[in-house]
Amino acid sequence: MDAKELRKYFPILHQEVNGHPLVYLDNGATSQKPIPVIEAMDKYYREFNSNVHRGVHTLGNRATDGYEGAREKVRAFINAREAAEIVFTRGTTSAVNTVAYGYARLVLKPGDEIVTTLVEHHANFIPWQQAAKATGATFKFIPLAEDGTVTLEAVKATVTDNTKIVAIHHISNVLGDTTPIKEIARIAHQHGALLFVDGAQGAPHKKIDVQDLDCDFYAFSGHKMAGPTGIGVLYGKREVLEQVEPMEFGGEMIDYVDMYDSTWKELPWKFEGGTPIIAGAIGLGAAIDFLEEIGLENIERHEKHLVKYALEQMREIEGLKIYGPQQDRSSLITFNLDTVHPHDLATVLDSYGIAVRAGHHCAQPLMRWLNVTATARASFYLYNTEEDVDVLIAGLKKTKEYFGNVFS
Ligand code: 7TS
């Protein structure tokens, strides 16, 4: 895999920001889009824009084929058993809410438990917290190891026969750790609980096989994996999704509507009320083709190399603190530099054309656990290079020098 070669497909990368070539290291927030994705959506709007599942006219059929074809691409991408197990959502956030509202809030009762961790992104935290509050269920946390990772011993010690849902990240957007999903699924299932996996930082960076992982749900967002914003995926095992009620009612999702009651379409359409995200799904399908052409294994290897390359140099910078596991990290590095506020750090880096994220990363409970208010984060994707890392390191050194001079 040649990252430099791949950059050709991403027009946005070829620009200057503040007089410097753009170094985009905010892929954890959203990734850039390659030409085939932009063109697939453009083609839909120019050539066969139409609503889906409705008519018999030619454009409508082409749009339906494009939309349902994308669902099949997602199915193959994560090796789901059938396309009916792939629900299109707006993103990870709406996928979690679909299950929190359509299942947790309807079936949980006092005494039941939802088990999660303090590492979760708010998207995989607040919907469960509020479902627990609404139902009287207990909201429980798996204790973290010193470096913030989740050990199987801790999972075993937390999950009980009262646990109904375990909700956990696959890869953390702050710590970059990978949780042992397959083993956690085994523990959850031994206790009769369902496992919901937040794969927002998993699916873009790693080959996912939901049958092998044996999770009950797996959620991810198109925009973090070279696809467009506004489209995401809720995977669920058929027998589990059958038990989830739709939370959006209206057109497209019904079977039969009577004066005082209605019935729903079969899976997955009962969850896709209203005109669906047609262009988004087509764009996501093109993104999947693009990623598969490169190979998820190659992408993962490339990113791990960049993280290792960056970590080696970052460890040399005095006063730079890195959060999360020191080994076995996925595609991102979260850090703080001396007492420089991460927003100031990100602002100085931006003046050199380097885009990193600063803030609480939608993980306030984790920030509190880490005893910080905010951090900076550099997150990589397939088009980042060693040169990008070199520019980041030089930027960090200049920032240190700048603030050192200001404060001394
Ligand atoms: N879960 C994780 C682990 C995430 O990293 C994010 C977004 C979400 C859920 C929510 O995804 P959405 O597409 O529904 O918004 N993470 C980030 C981030 O780290 N910086 O900006 C968004």
TrEMBL record:
Its cofactor is pyridoxal 5'-phosphate. Its EC number is 2.8.1.7. Gene3D superfamilies: Aspartate Aminotransferase, domain 1, Type I PLP-dependent aspartate aminotransferase-like (Major domain). It catalyses: (sulfur carrier)-H + L-cysteine = (sulfur carrier)-SH + L-alanine. PROSITE patterns: AA_TRANSFER_CLASS_5. GO terms for molecular function: cysteine desulfurase activity; pyridoxal phosphate binding. The keyword Transferase applies. Keywords: Pyridoxal phosphate, Transferase. GO terms for biological process: cysteine metabolic process. Residues 23-392 form the Aminotransferase class V domain. Pfam families: Aminotran_5 (PF00266). NCBIfam families: sufS. Belongs to the class-V pyridoxal-phosphate-dependent aminotransferase family. Csd subfamily. Catalyzes the removal of elemental sulfur and selenium atoms from L-cysteine, L-cystine, L-selenocysteine, and L-selenocystine to produce L-alanine. This is Cysteine desulfurase. It comes from Brevibacillus gelatini.
